[in-house]
Amino acid sequence: NPNACNYVDPSIVTDLETCVFAEEGYDCDGNCLNDADGDGVCDEFEVEGCLDEVACNYDPATTDEIECVYQEEGYDCDGVCLNDADGDGVCDEFEVAGCTDASACNFDASNTDEDGSCDYCSCGDPISGYTLQVEEYAVDGIEGMTTYRFYIGMEAASDFLSAMYGSIQNPLSISTSTGFYNDAFAAGPTAEG
Question: By the 8 A CB rule, do 111 and 96 touch?
Fold first, then answer.
């Protein structure tokens, strides 16, 4: 076989021998057929990777070094947060606390963690002397619950709150299973008490 490494012209062969062929990727002298970087490892057998053990693309079998890739701060090599207590995909150390309701006056799209600070009453100039302030008062005062205080400013002492409502754009829902608490200073339905 003329492709064998031990080929001899048949006209001078006296003894037939088993043909010996070069290994795949090599010539009969054991040299690579393709070795672009001249490192003695044939191109088709090169293993690209990084030899720094802390890199994401570390490969101990690397024969052709490429740029090492490292995990970003707060993430693993797959881009998953190392710490994400609320499971929202934003790492705890990168959370931005603030109002996340787009209909609130103090909404900020960069906020990632709702902190109960949404303000719905301070947008623009007030159209009357009526005000509403919502304050987070206690978290887990009753296990698993958050207590809020509502402060309503009225124009006249005889004014009273008869209803609260919302719209499609700004829904409002205030409910309780046991009734609302009214402190001793405002025991009645009017501002006078």
Answer: yes
Q: Are 96 and 113 spatial neighbours (Cβ–Cβ below 8 Å)?
A: yes
Average pLDDT over residues 70-96: 93
Report pLDDT for 75: 94
DSSP 138: E
Give bridge partners of residue 95 from the DSSP assignment: none
Number of neighbouring beta carbons within 10 Å of residue 98: 19
Average pLDDT over residues 20-27: 89
Residues present in the chain in total: 193
Angle, alpha carbons 148-174-106 (nearest 5°): 65
Return the residue matching tokens 């290994």.
23
Measure the CA–CA gap between 180 and 161, rounded to whole angstroms. Answer: 13
> For 112-154, how does the pLDDT look when each residue is reduced to its tens digit (9 = 90+)?
998 888 887 777 666 677 777 778 888 887 787 777 777 778 8
User: What per-residue string of b and e applies to 62-72 under the rule 16 or more CB within 10 Å gives b?
Assistant: ebeeeeeeeee
**Which pairs from 38-41 meet CB under 8 Å and 24+ separation?**
39/63, 39/64
Spatial separation of the C-alpha atoms in residues 108 and 99, rounded to whole Å: 7
Distance CA 1, CA 19 (A): 7
| DSSP letter, residue 89 | S
